[in-house]
Amino acid sequence: MPKTYNEAATATAQSYYNSSDADNFYFTIWGGEDIHIGLYRSGHDQIGDASRRTVQRMADLASLSPDSKVLDLGAGYGGALRYLVSTYRCSAVALNLSEVENDRDRQKNREAGLNDRIQVVDASFEDVPYDDNTFDLIWSQDAFLHSGQRELVLKEAARVLKPGGQLIFTDPMRADDCPPEVLGPILARLQLEDLAAPGFYRETLAKLGFDEVRFEDHTEQLANHYQRVHDETVARDAELSGVVSRDYIERMKTGLQHWVAGGRNGHLVWGIFVFKKRA
Prior knowledge:
Low-confidence stretches: 1-5
Number of helices: 11
Radius of gyration: 18 Å
Helix content: 40-55%
Largest sheet: 7 strands, mixed
Shape: globular
Strand content: 15-25%
CATH superfamily: Vaccinia Virus protein VP39
Structural class: alpha/beta
Distance between the termini: 42 Å
Oligomer: single chain
Mean pLDDT: 93
């Protein structure tokens, strides 16, 4: 049977992040720790430094202790959890769809001496392989957009999070008043019908028993980030050409400019959401 649009989105994300082109691009441009939008102080900030600043800001908003158990949904290379575990001495699970990224994550954890405190799991966040009420904090950075079943993802997050626990995440979102068709080039590349809007997260999570604690709007950083990645891609073309195909590099440049335009035109929203599950 042919895949549904929702299944196609998941398959596209897995195939994409498992590809050598994507893996080598992100590992090279971000430095092998994080794959998400950064908080920039200037247009010349290193991408890795700005991305780590996002992790640190999110951690400032979290309630963490050595007893905390954290689940990262869509963990990428796992840099955020290495930071959290090193800083707060908590334990963590990195759940991610890409086996290629997970292999790099495990290697990084071994090198950092953290593999006993971080478990890396090959799985989809539409079907989290843990019991109800397992985690104190659920964390995610710029990953939910890849799901064609975001309501199911949030239901799974609600299921495995303990009462009183926190859900902290970022996600590139469509502005509430932006029609999906305006984002056609972005959606086509991701094999998605739509991006979530802030209103979707607020309404869905309220129904699932969450209270919104805060939303820090950093929308300007979305355009800053994708422009910075575009500029770095151009500047490091020769280096990338040794490990990434020419077709991928050119398509990436075009795709990044779509994200920059969407951010600058007010069609996209990005920031840090903090929710608390009702006790």
